[in-house]
C-alpha cells in the first residue's frame, strides 16, 4: 500500500480530491500490463484493446513479474498508483498460451478476475475502416442465452460492460454511435466436466445512410479486432466484498411514492383505488343503430304478457 501524505500545495490537493469517492463515478481507468513472458500475438491484441479503451487507459511498455492468480500485490500497487479500477495482463507460456487476465479492483484491491485465452485473432490493421475516435462510447450486444443463465458467462458480461462503459452521459447524438461491440457465445451445459463454449468478440463500425423516414438506415461493417476467447481460470468476488462494492449511497436511492411503481422498462406505473361501482344505472351513449323498432317492442310486450298469464295459471 502507498503511504498517505498530506497535500503540500494546491496541485497535490486537487489530485487527492479527484481520487476521493464520488456519488457518480466517471469512467474507470484500465491498465494494460505485460508479464515476464509474452508472445507477439498477445501483445498485438493488447494494443488493439488499448485502442478501444483510450483515453481512459494506461499502457505499460515494459515487462513486469506479474502473476495475477498467484500474487496480486503488484497489481494492487499499480492500481493505487494510477487510480485504476481495471486491468488487463498479457502472459504466454506452454500451459496457457496467448493469455489475457482481466482484473477488476475495488478500493485498490482485486475484486474478481477471469482468464481468457486467445484462440483466434485478427488485428484492426487487417480491416480497411475508419479508426475509432478516442473517448467514443460503444454500443454493447450480448448474443446467447448463457449470458443470462450461466454464472461464468454472467461474470464475463458484467466485466465487459464495466470495462467499455465509458463516461456517464445524459444525452447522446446518433452520430456518436460510431461502433458496436458484439459478444456472442453458444449455450453452456450445466455439466462441469464439459468444456465451456468459446466467447466471440467482434467490433463493427456503423454507417448512417439516408432512408425514407426520419431515422437513418444503419449498416454494420467489421472494423476489428476479431477475437475468439476460451475461458480458463475464474476467480469470483467474495460475497461480503461484492456487497460492499455494489452498495449505493442514499442520495442515489429513488424516493418511494405511495401507489407508484416503475416497471422493468422504466415506465412509471400508478395504482388508483376507487369504490365499488353499480354499473346497472350506468348512462351509456344512445346510438340510432341500437334503437329498437316499434315492432320489436310490441313483440316483447306480447311475450311478457304471455309469461304473466302462464305464471297466474300455475298459481291457480
The CATH architecture category of the domain at 26-238 equals 3-Layer(aba) Sandwich
Query: What's the count of strands?
Result: 12
CATH topology of the domain at 26-238: Rossmann fold
Order of helices and strands: HEHEHEEEEHHEEEEHEEH
- Percentage of residues in strands: 25-35%
Structural class: alpha+beta
Radius of gyration: 32 Å
| CA distance, first residue to last residue | 107 Å
**Which stretches of 5+ consecutive residues score pLDDT under 50?**
none
Continuous helix count = 7
* Fourth-level CATH superfamily of the domain at 26-238: Brix domain
Instruction: Tell me roughly what share of residues is in helical segments.
Output: 25-40%
Largest sheet properties: 10 strands, mixed
Question: Under the CATH scheme, which class of the domain at 26-238?
Answer: Alpha Beta
Global outline: elongated
Question: What is the arithmetic mean of pLDDT?
Answer: 86
GO molecular function: 5S rRNA binding; 7S RNA binding
Subcellular location: Nucleus, Nucleolus
Keywords: Nucleus
GO cellular component, one term: nucleolus
Task: Chart the SSEs and their pairings.
Layout: H1 10-18, E1 30-34, H2 40-53, E2 57-63, H3 73-82, E3 86-91, E4 99-106, E5 109-122, E6 139-143, H4 146-149, H5 151-164, E7 179-185, E8 199-209, E9 217-222, E10 226-235, H6 239-245, E11 260-262, E12 268-270, H7 294-315
Parallel strand pairs: 1-2, 1-3, 6-7
Antiparallel strand pairs: 3-4, 4-5, 5-10, 7-8, 8-9, 8-10, 11-12
GO molecular function: 5S rRNA binding; 7S RNA binding
Protein name: Ribosome production factor 2 homolog
Organism: Schizosaccharomyces cryophilus (strain OY26 / ATCC MYA-4695 / CBS 11777 / NBRC 106824 / NRRL Y48691)
Amino acid at each position: 500500500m502507498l503511504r498517505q501524505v498530506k497535500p503540500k500545495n494546491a496541485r497535490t490537493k486537487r489530485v487527492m480530491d479527484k481520487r476521493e469517492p464520488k456519488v457518480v463515478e466517471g469512467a474507470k481507468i484500465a491498465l494494460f500490463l505485460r508479464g515476464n513472458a509474452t508472445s507477439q500475438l498477445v501483445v498485438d491484441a493488447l494494443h488493439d484493446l488499448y485502442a478501444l479503451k483510450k483515453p481512459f487507459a494506461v499502457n505499460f511498455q515494459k515487462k513486469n513479474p506479474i502473476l495475477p492468480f498467484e500474487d496480486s500485490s503488484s497489481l494492487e500497487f499499480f492500481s493505487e498508483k494510477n487510480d485504476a479500477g481495471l486491468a488487463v495482463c498479457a502472459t504466454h507460456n506452454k500451459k496457457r498460451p496467448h493469455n489475457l487476465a482481466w482484473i477488476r479492483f475495488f478500493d485498490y484491491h482485486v475484486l474478481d478476475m477471469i482468464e481468457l485465452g486467445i484462440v483466434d485473432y485478427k488485428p484492426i490493421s487487417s480491416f480497411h475502416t475508419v479508426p475509432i475516435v478516442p473517448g467514443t462510447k460503444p454500443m454493447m450486444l450480448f448474443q446467447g442465452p448463457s449470458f443470462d443463465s450461466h454464472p461464468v458467462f454472467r461474470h464475463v458480461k458484467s466485466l465487459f460492460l464495466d470495462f467499455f462503459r465509458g463516461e456517464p452521459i445524459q444525452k447522446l447524438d446518433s452520430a456518436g454511435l460510431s461502433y458496436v461491440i458484439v459478444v456472442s457465445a453458444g449455450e453452456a451445459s450445466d455439466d462441469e466436466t464439459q468444456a465451456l463454449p468459446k466467447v466471440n468478440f467482434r467490433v463493427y463500425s456503423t454507417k448512417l445512410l439516408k432512408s425514407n423516414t426520419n431515422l437513418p438506415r444503419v449498416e454494420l461493417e467489421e472494423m476489428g479486432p476479431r477475437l475468439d476467447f476460451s475461458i480458463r481460470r475464474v476467480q469470483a468476488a467474495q460475497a461480503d466484498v461484492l456487497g460492499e462494492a455494489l452498495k449505493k449511497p442514499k442520495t442515489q436511492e429513488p424516493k418511494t411514492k405511495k401507489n407508484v411503481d416503475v416497471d422493468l422498462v422504466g415506465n412509471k406505473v400508478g395504482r388508483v383505488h376507487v369504490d365499488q361501482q353499480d354499473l346497472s344505472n350506468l348512462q351509456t351513449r344512445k346510438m340510432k343503430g341500437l334503437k329498437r323498432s316499434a315492432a320489436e317492442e310490441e313483440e316483447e310486450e306480447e311475450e311478457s304478457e304471455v309469461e304473466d298469464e302462464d305464471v297466474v295459471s300455475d298459481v291457480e
